[in-house]
Input
Amino acid sequence: MADELVLYTNPMSRGRIARWMMEEVGQPYRAEIVGFGTPMKSADYKALNPMGKVPTLVHGDTVITECAAICAYMADAFPQAGLAPAPNSRSRGPYYRWMFFAAGPVEAAVASKAFGLEVPPDRARAIGYGTYADTMDTLEYAVTRGEYLTGDRFSAADVYVGSQVLWGLQFGTIEKRPAFEAYGARISARPAARRAAEIDDALMAEMQKQG
Output
């Protein structure tokens, strides 16, 4: 099919973010599970994603990688889902702001914390995220401006930023602040979030059985 949506993913990866986004959009899609190691680094798969990582989304002859890009693309490709502010809306400001903040400073700060990497205080201004503490304070600011990141309306930015928050809370790389826990509870209760988690959890259980 010319416009078929195919999601290359793995239930033990950031592909869970893309899965959630696909469920929110509600369009038919096919998921291809890509194993770690040889399958993900194969020439065929790297022809789609040279990084040899998941997720990758193929929409007809268009290839999109990177979770934030997949979320933004799907929201714009299927505007009827109402997952992005209108292009001429000023709500596009916070929508882009917080999605890219999570893809940049949050991702980097959380990864640094997870691997025990510390930036010398006198060099913090040279790092995009500054300090972990500043990043967490800014993230808390973002999730307390309204019910959702753009105000009172859920968007693709909440899928992406919310996934970062939920994963960080689960694995201890984001502080368990009340604001983060409250925001995480709101978004994880969404039917699409639950469906996506159930699909990936079932796949992960099956993969573990198979060894």
About this structure: The mean pLDDT is 96. The chain is about 50% helix and 10% strand. Helices lie at 15-25, 43-48, 67-77, 92-114, 132-143, 156-171, 178-188, 191-210.
